[in-house]
Amino acid sequence: MGQVYNRRFIKGLIFLILFAAFFIVFANFLNIGYWGLMTLGEIPKLDDSRVLLSQGILALILTAFALTFYTANIIDAHKDAKKIQQGWSIPNLREGFKDAWDTGFPYLLVGPGLFLLIFVVIFPLLFMVFLAFTDYNLYNAPPKNLLSWVGFDNFAALLTVPIWRTTFVNVFSWTIVWTLVATTLQIALALFLAILVNDPRVKFKRLIRTVIILPWAVPGFVTILIFAALFNDKFGAINRDILIPLIGTGLPWMTDPFWAKIALIGIQVWLGFPFVFALFTGILQSISADWYEAADMDGASRWQKFRNITFPHVMFATAPLLIMQYAGNFNNFNIIYLFNEGGPAVRGQNAGGTDILISWVYGLTFETQNYNMAASISIIIGLMVAGFAFYQFRRTRSFKEEEEV
């Protein structure tokens, strides 16, 4: 009606046809989708709650598309009405198509990627979020049983049910320790080595850098499996060839949670520092030597030059990537699972002694089929990682200066 009011009859007719086609084609699908989303089915073995939930989510996405398109139509009509009041002449059909093509071409190019993003990323995420508010588990699985909405009961169980509370607290605490210690150590080691190799007195820099970066060139899963064999309690080379000859006994790397965590942190430092080393090396080479010469003339010590020149420059240039190192290790599933599958087992909890949140979610999903609890924990993980990354990005100088550009 807004387009008709502006005397753009063809444009209004096109919008009318599009909206009519949308409701004619999707009316039944939307009806079933919203019914399934609210009820999750009524007849066991006939209604599959998972299918109904999927259709309901698709109905929400289609509705969001329609509302977005409708809002864009209203805004467009409002802008045209203002232009007409200011003396703007209504373009003819050819000019209208040309203007639409010029303004809509970027959206035409972005459209396929956006469409793929919605149905490959957003749809599974929404499905996971909705599962967190149902009672979907091994003993209540469709199509034999119907799912029910349980509100925030799954989140409450993480804090009230003893086994869930104990497991969540232990796993969450180890995840934080693992993220902070392993990532900080790999960054500190990389910075230390980069500064040493960058020293003008060091010769054969290219050879040294190549050797240091070699662990990065080897596929991560291969390195982890090799280390799992080296740390094996019975036949591992670390116990058999190093510790037993030196101290007379080996350490329970695989059977004791404490020593397994120490091994995992060491492996992650080995895997992670070459990338950060390469990153820091490039930044150090970009620092002007004049700054250090001026600092020498002022009588600055090595520590003062590091604290006031090297460290701030390196952190300014690499802060966003270092933040992603922390976020990546927070969800570093590969090393936890490939080393010893999150073990060893711990009495009184349904997660292994070295499980982090993401590996615990994997176990709940594929081993015990606690889909509702796994989805609830996944939401917590997502909120934590997103919140941490956003907060740190907002605090970095590089992000603040980009906003000022």
Automatic annotation (TrEMBL):
Residues covered by the ABC transmembrane type-1 domain: 172-392
GO biological process, one term: maltodextrin transmembrane transport
Matching Gene3D superfamilies: MetI-like
InterPro entries: MetI-like (IPR000515), MetI-like_sf (IPR035906)
One GO cellular component term: maltose transport complex
Annotated function: Part of the ABC transporter complex MalEFGK involved in maltose/maltodextrin import. Probably responsible for the translocation of the substrate across the membrane.
Full protein name: Maltose/maltodextrin transport system permease protein
Origin organism lineage: Bacteria, Bacillati, Bacillota, Bacilli, Bacillales
